[in-house]
């Protein structure tokens, strides 16, 4: 009987590597191994080696080396998640930290282990490329891509195209500064598109092919800015050419003399949006458009490398779920907050909270990673997503499986029903780990999480985004929080400023306003409690926190925050 | 080098710190010239002398497999040497959110995360 080769199924949710991708990764690991050996021998100085290790995601942080592993557009499969668990167990201290760029960081890595770790990652089709340095960083995407009921277009194919275009792009490997792109295919902006160097919102065009809304010059950090809309209807075939034109203008004119003025947002502000637009158009018009054209056939060839879920008829899944919700109030509350409507009847997406009450936002243990991989395999076609809000999504779960999924999560510290609520906190690693930080983000997040952890209280408060950054670099997106906390250094001691009224989403994107002078950690926690009390006492029926802030302005909240104890 | 790391009063005392090249772990220069993993084993120097010490340490950095050498101002307290800034206190003690991750945590001990 002849041996029959069966084609392995494509991974659901992410691009399937081929031999070219794998060869490239092997060569890259070998290159870095050689660089490490030369550093250890003294052939390379630290000054020479630093940019090389950063190109492979390896930072030297406050206590040790930190390795940031890329999770392109936040999607990975169960085997890849198990690889991350293995790295956490074997080379780190048994945990990892999901980041606001949908990546994962390991905080206790040894330089001498790093080539081996990169080999382990490469064997799982993973790497740490584009997680650091002045290059185009990991492209982020909607965590419900390919699943959301409100989605117009799946952005992951375009995120992958952008990844392939930008990886080792010779013109854009040494940009004036790092460059961040986000892409969404839904009217509901879940990627903070207007706070990126380039934000893309995809929708279907008149000819049935996608068109893109293009925002440029958004960002957080020292100079927060909302992106300027450059194009409303960029055709799919011009996507690469137009982005190339934007990057060329930035590369040519972005400031390299001052790190604080090097991001594209500063260039857009300096030139003015109209002049920047004109310069991009001039570059775009002068380009060899045929060379940079993105043909439909290429898009479809990339799309064909993505596995798609083979949904079984859901039968009476919705009815079973309804009955289970009625029978268990705690489960019902979790379903209400932690699930998202799916385009496939009888299915939903589950957001697994990595923010247990009083816990460290975004940290997961290796055992939890293994559990998530198991659940993905069993209930979600082997696919997982990391969100820029530092949670994990199981994209395609049958509604009648939700109860089992929730029970397994709850038994392992992952069942908190707080998505979108006040304790669903974004927090950067802060001064507990980060060499750049001025103050610790995690302890104040833990205190606030514990103080507002009551399920009833959170439901009463309703949707509220609380973001915490340990320094002005704003990795914790504090400017975009309804309530933001910024850690500052006051003569060598930690202190915290409160911002109010920020929002990352869509047309109402806004930058939070600083309420006043910085306070100690405990004073800040108390001040936020008084801000919440003010909201609860002054809101109108059905009014969300951010809406009350906008209606009343900051004055009453400032009065409350700085009220004498 | 972050300028914050080199803020020193003229009259104070400082210890010398670095990261080990191989594993990134923090070390402190002891009185015997060896690099220690806990700050209490560090030798304090008058701030007036620290730049000379740093210069000598930097000259040996590659040979001793060290990176990021700088001086940390400290005070003497009943519990020993204490950095004057919160940043350096955290750096010396380990992350405050993991009290078990003390500076003498064994390098290759598999951790049990709480």
From TrEMBL, chain A:
Q: Report domain Nitrite/Sulfite reductase ferredoxin-like positions.
A: 65-123, 341-411
UniProtKB keywords: 4Fe-4S, Heme, Iron, Iron-sulfur, Metal-binding, Oxidoreductase
Q: Per its UniProt record, what Gene3D superfamilies does this chain match?
A: Sulfite Reductase Hemoprotein, domain 1, Sulfite Reductase Hemoprotein,Domain 2
Q: Which residues form the Nitrite/sulphite reductase 4Fe-4S domain?
A: 132-284, 424-560
Give the molecular function GO annotations: 4 iron, 4 sulfur cluster binding; heme binding; metal ion binding; oxidoreductase activity
Q: What is the protein's name according to its record? A: Sulfite reductase
- Supply the source organism's classification: Bacteria, Pseudomonadati, Pseudomonadota, Alphaproteobacteria, Acetobacterales
Automatic annotation (TrEMBL), chain B:
Segment Disordered: which positions? 90-114
Q: Which InterPro entries match?
A: DUF2849
What the entry lists under Pfam families is as follows: DUF2849
Question: What is the protein name given in its UniProt record?
Answer: DUF2849 domain-containing protein
Give the originating organism.
Answer: Acetobacter orleanensis
């Amino acid at each position: 009987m002849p041996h029959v080769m069966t084609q392995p199924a494509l991974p659901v949710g992410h691009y399937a590597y081929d031999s070219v991708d794998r060869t490239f990764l092997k060569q890259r690991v070998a290159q870095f191994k050689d660089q490490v050996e030369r550093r250890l021998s003294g052939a390379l100085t630290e000054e020479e080696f630093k940019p090389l290790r950063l190109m492979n995601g390896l930072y030297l942080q406050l206590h040790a080396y930190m390795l940031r592993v890329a999770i392109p557009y936040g999607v990975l499969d169960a085997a890849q998640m198990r690889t991350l668990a293995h790295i956490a167990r074997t080379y780190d201290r048994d945990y990892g930290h999901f980041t606001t760029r949908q990546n994962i960081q390991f905080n206790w890595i040894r330089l001498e282990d790093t080539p081996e770790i990169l080999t382990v990652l490469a064997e799982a089709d993973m790497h740490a490329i584009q997680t650091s340095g002045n290059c185009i960083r990991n492209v982020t995407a909607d965590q419900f891509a390919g699943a959301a009921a409100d989605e117009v277009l799946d952005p992951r194919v375009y995120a992958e195209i952008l990844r392939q275009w930008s990886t080792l792009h010779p013109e854009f490997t040494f940009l004036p500064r790092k460059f961040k792109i986000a892409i969404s295919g839904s009217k509901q902006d879940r990627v903070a598109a207007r706070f990126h160097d380039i934000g893309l919102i995809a929708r279907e065009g008149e000819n049935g092919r996608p068109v893109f809304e293009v925002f440029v010059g958004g960002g957080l950090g020292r100079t927060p800015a909302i992106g300027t809309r450059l194009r409303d209807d960029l055709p799919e075939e011009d996507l690469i050419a137009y982005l190339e034109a934007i990057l060329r203008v930035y590369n040519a004119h972005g400031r390299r003399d001052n790190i604080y003025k090097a991001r594209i947002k500063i260039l857009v502000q300096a030139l003015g949006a109209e002049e920047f637009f004109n310069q991009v158009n001039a570059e775009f018009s002068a380009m060899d458009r045929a060379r940079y054209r993105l043909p439909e056939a290429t898009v479809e060839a990339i799309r064909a490398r993505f596995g798609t879920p083979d949904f079984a008829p859901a039968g009476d899944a919705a009815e079973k779920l309804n009955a289970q919700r009625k029978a268990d109030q705690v489960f019902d509350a979790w379903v209400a907050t932690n699930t998202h409507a799916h385009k496939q009847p009888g299915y939903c997406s589950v957001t697994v909270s990595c923010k247990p009450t009083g816990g460290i936002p975004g940290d997961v243990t290796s055992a939890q990673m293994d559990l998530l991989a198991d659940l993905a395999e069993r209930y979600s076609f082997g696919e997982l997503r990391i969100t820029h809000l530092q949670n994990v999504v199981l994209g395609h779960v049958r509604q009648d499986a939700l109860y089992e999924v929730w029970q397994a999560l709850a038994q392992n510290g992952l069942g908190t029903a707080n998505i979108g609520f006040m304790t669903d906190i974004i927090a950067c690693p802060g001064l507990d780990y980060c060499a750049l930080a001025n103050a610790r983000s995690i302890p104040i997040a833990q205190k606030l999480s514990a103080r507002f952890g009551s399920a009833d209280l959170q439901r009463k408060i309703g949707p509220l985004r609380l973001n915490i950054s340990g320094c002005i670099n704003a990795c914790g997106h504090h400017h975009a929080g309804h309530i933001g906390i910024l850690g500052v250094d006051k003569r060598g001691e930690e202190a915290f400023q409160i911002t109010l009224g920020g929002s990352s989403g869509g047309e109402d994107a806004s930058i939070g306003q600083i309420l006043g002078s910085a306070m100690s950690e405990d004073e800040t926690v108390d001040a936020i409690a008084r801000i919440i009390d003010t909201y609860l006492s002054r809101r109108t029926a059905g009014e969300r926190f951010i809406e009350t802030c906008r209606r009343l302005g900051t004055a009453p909240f400032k009065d409350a925050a700085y009220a004498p104890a | 080098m972050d300028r914050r790391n080199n803020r020193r009063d003229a009259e104070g005392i400082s210890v010398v710190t670095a990261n080990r090249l191989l594993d990134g772990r923090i070390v402190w220069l002891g009185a015997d010239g060896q690099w220690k993993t806990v700050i209490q084993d560090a030798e304090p120097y008058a701030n007036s002398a620290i730049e000379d010490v740093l210069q000598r340490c930097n000259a040996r950095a590659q040979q001793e497999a060290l990176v990021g050498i700088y001086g940390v101002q400290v005070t003497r307290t009943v519990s020993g040497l204490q950095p004057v800034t919160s940043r350096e206190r955290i750096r010396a003690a380990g992350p405050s959110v993991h009290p078990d991750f003390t500076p003498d945590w064994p390098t290759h001990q598999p951790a049990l995360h709480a």
